[in-house]
Model the fold of this input.
Amino acid sequence: MILDIHLQYILALLGAGVVVGFACGLLGIGGGFIMVPVQIWALTSTGIEPTIATRIAFGTSLAVILPTALCGCYGHNCRGVVLLRPGLALGLSGLLGAVMGGTIAAHAPADLLKAIFGMVVIAGAMRMLLAEKILLRGVSLAKPSEEIMPYIPWGMAVGVVSGLTGIGGGVILVPVMTIAMGFNIFQAIGTSSVAIAFNAVGGTFAYIVNGWGVSGLPAYSLGYIDLFQFMLLAGTSVLTAQLGVKAAHRLPAEQLRYIFMILMIYVGLKMMGVFAFLGLPI
Done:
């Protein structure tokens, strides 16, 4: 029985890593909304206390997002769609915000963290839905500013959300960049990968520091970073990130975008406990 649980654990994480890598390359998102529920299930199924499991999932998710986002960024940069100056402005301010968000999350109860996570994921799905026509056409209403200051408040805000919920923040950044900042879809996806990499650094640092010496952690943990989960998730996500990059530049993304929006809404409602409240076994 224990062997079966661990095998399911490993297969689920490997599968999540494959999907996350592809999503990161294709849509410029970190994929935390996919990883976190799988990680929490895997951890609690092996006896980890739910609040600790939630913090580990958030921290480890951000650690996985870092190499995945860098791999996607490399692919997009080779195609000339990464705007480095805005990306650095969003990323550096986001790094500070992610440290703050991660520190807050490391002292918050699991139910609150799950509710916040669910609301952020659903909000991201709604933004993607409302921005659908602009995103698919690659139309921007202006041109990206060369000034750094307009990017700092957005970077800081998204960074806080990233650290607080264990997601890279691309589900918020990409629609905002296309609608409010004048990026076309390819520039938004490519530049978002820079910003979420920085968010991942800040959040990972916060979860390592705040989880150092905490009891009840799995073996081979670095603070709230589960190194075993990290290897399984990152090992597959890095490999599939380049596939996502190629798909983003070659294939129409409309159907995949709808699939991800539906998945995000489901995950958000599930994490908020809506289905359990309604007595629905889904």
The longest helix spans residues 50-78. The chain has one domain: 2-278.
